[in-house]
Protein 1
Amino acid sequence: MTILTVIHIFIVTCTLQGQPVETGLEVLVKSKFEILKGKKVGLITNPTGVNRDLQSCIDLLYNAPGVKLTALYGPEHGVRGDYTAGEIIGSATDPSTGLPVYSLYGNTRKPTKEMLKGIDVLVYDIQDIGSRSYTYISTLGLAMEAAAESNIPFIVLDRPNPLGGFRMEGPLVREGFISFVSQYPIPYVHGMTVGELALYLNGEGLLENGVRCDLKVIKMNGWKRDMSFEDTGLPWVPSSPHIPHAVTACYYPATGITGELYVASIGVGYTLPFQMFATEWYDADSLARNLNSLDLPGVIFRPVHYKPYYSVSQGKMVHGVQIHLTDIRIAPLSLIQFYILQEAWKLWPGKDIFAICEKARLDMFDKVCGTDQVRILFTKTWRVDSIIDMWTGDIPAFRTRAGNYFLY
């Protein structure tokens, strides 16, 4: 075999293995913005709305021939990503384009008719992370409702789900627990791209009063449900301050629910957000040993000691575990935090973190779970077995319904 043959085989192999995924934004650009020609466009986006060359969809639409970008709308953290989690954002003027920026995380979470005045079409381009409590999908649904009520077409530029398209975990949101962190009755980990989710919300009549918007999803090219984000070849722009890397999206469901209690440090306020679970009273070695003895698939626990720079236990030494996902495909992501609580209870019986936390944080935990039954059932025995049925029971029926809206 000649050197040239070897090089040729290498190039072909790399090409086959590395077919790039094109986002909905990139497909739109390749079409020369045909669907938006002659339209006044409102754009819901943030720093994640970029192409593979990291050009912002704001700039691409603002400079697109025949397209009139008229207004910007920002979710939690803002259009430019310069606000922290939960920080109320006011409307302003974008310094780069001079366009009005309407906040969808301030006095209103849903675009008003005044905000949509003069808009011919509303476009959504935001990278999501695949977990229900991440508020961008709540913004998506509420914006779809507003578009329907104002008879404005709605276009979603689709992007990959960094958790892939197969994983679904957690109960549907129960009546009485709808909130901005659980806006729609879907599982905690929903297994859909943002475009598919938009189709699901619209098609299942889940928008307020069952309204349906004039919805168009611009599909990706090349994405497959079994892909990790790294497989896509796309750059990751931090989707929020505490999701700096694509892999952080995989850790978010592993600790984010119990992190709402503000009792244990989950690495937010340290260098590894959502990858840690530590308190001031845990014994790190004992906790790690107990957890590793469970032989949970796809995860290993390492004892750690650190001082958070801010947030829970700021400046104080905490002890616990770092979560190492060795195989994201099989790890029980959203149940990991409950296994940690289970083993912590064995080691420190009577140390009830639900009793320690403030009432408002307890309410937020229930809202993020989508029900209070997870907490009630779990704290009866402090065993994961007690919530397994609730955690998995809604998934088969949801998977069947959701499959009607899969695009890939």
Protein 2
Amino acid sequence: MEYQKVLPMLLKDITDNLLINMIFFMILAVVLTFFNQRIQIWMWLREAESALKRLHFLVIKAKKITVDTVKEIGKPNFDPSPLIDDFLDFFYIEPVSLDPSGVLRRLEHLLNVRDRRIESFARRIAPNADPISLSNIEGLLEATIVLNYLYREIRHLLLLGKKTKSVIFIMQLQMFLPLIMRYAEAFFGAVEAFSSGKPIGDGVGALVAAKLMHGKPWKEIAEKIIASEFDFKGRKVIVIKAKGPGAEIGKPGEAIARIVAEHGGNISRIIMIDAAAKLEGEKTGRVAEGVGAAIGDPGPEKYKIEEIAVKYNIPLDAIGIKLSLEEAITVMRKELVEAAEKAVEKVLNIILERVNEGETVIIAGIGNTIGIGQ
């Protein structure tokens, strides 16, 4: 019968296919056993190369934005591109901390030198820029410097990983890459914000102060810091912030110490408002209250505030407005503008609840004032 002839042929085909599949999977198992690590390294390196290309694109575009902004605002009679390219490698070295004596004083000195160096360079490449635009160019340069550093660092790690073929080294690069790319995209957003003079998320504390002092007289009391003094339901209120609308931070610690000294320490309390880093899952613009010096400072300004508060036993109230790193250095979102209104209400409530009539309170709005006036 026909099926008696066909059945052996089918069985032979099935057996042959099974043998082929078994051989294939055995070869695959051997390849994966001996070459799995190399395949994984190759995949990680490919991801890093892709990220590096994106970083290179961001750096090139950021440089172009910087050069175009300088040419448009500063109107130099020369091409600033070579000077800007050289300046993007600018760095500063932190003071030695092995001997802690005077470390904050040394740190402040180096930060002052650094700031003056960036300011003088901005004035050199943009000689016709007004003071506000000049401050924005300084911020633009700093954001581009950070972006350029991230690119050079990733390039260094990638090339080193290729040379060493170290699994641990390449794995660490791949693990941190998503976070580094988030930072890179954020700093590119900062470049766009500084080039256009728009407010950034970090300025939300200064925005609160600006709302409180809006329409009231003010004067400059410290380096790039202004103060407005007015009466609120029998309480004397002194509001300080960096002088806007240029990209300024100023020296709020120096300003607060000076005000307290002028009043002989007769200050009821100090209320500080600043942007605060949120945790993943927290809502942007949430207003939180605590105690302490609310200022994202390397150390010197915060130290001055804490020192003067301890000297005269002045309570320090802190109000933090939650946001992510990306939101801090990119154009201010609607949620943060709304949060500033809530923070104003909270500040006024604190004054009514904790400051008696006839007493004086200092309110410090901390943050970059780009795009935020008085």
